[in-house]
Amino acid sequence: MKQVNYVERNSLMQRDSTRSIEDLPVDTWLTGDLKIIIFEENHSEFGCDACALYPAFVNGKKAFHVIRNWDAAHGYCAEGVEEELISFSQGVKLLVRLGAYEWIFKN
User: Fold this and answer.
1) Model pLDDT for residues 47-91, shown as the tens digit of each residue
2) How many domains does the chain have?
């Protein structure tokens, strides 16, 4: 099992339709440095989100930290990073949807 180091954070990166904007201040939380899975979502003719899922702790409870980095399609120039904290159960549902739950949590 790999060791995970945690960093204290108190903001989340945001973006509008074309670029990154000012970070959103939130209550202090911890994010791990071990990327659990990389995936894509929100595909359109304009591009897609290249995403990464990290372990997190929010108010002392297990959670997940999702980072979405917009990858613009050829000919488009929008960019930006968006972060979101999701509950542990939402993260497990995401892993199941991506077909990664059994691979990550194997015995």
Assistant:
1) 899 999 999 999 999 999 999 998 888 888 888 899 999 999 999
2) 1
The two structure tokens encoding residue 104: 């990550």
10 Å Cβ neighbour count for 68? 20
Tell me whether residue 1 is in a domain: no
Do the domain assignments include residue 67? yes
Which residues, in sequence order, are CB contacts of 86 under 8 Å at separation 6+?
A: 63, 64, 66, 94
Q: What torsion do the CA atoms of 56, 62, 66, 67 make, to the nearest 10 degrees? A: -10
Q: Which residues contact 24 (CB under 8 A, 6 or more apart)?
A: 11, 12, 13, 14
Range of the domain at 40: 6-104
Two tokens, residue 13: 């990166």
In single-letter form, the type of residue at position 65 comes to H
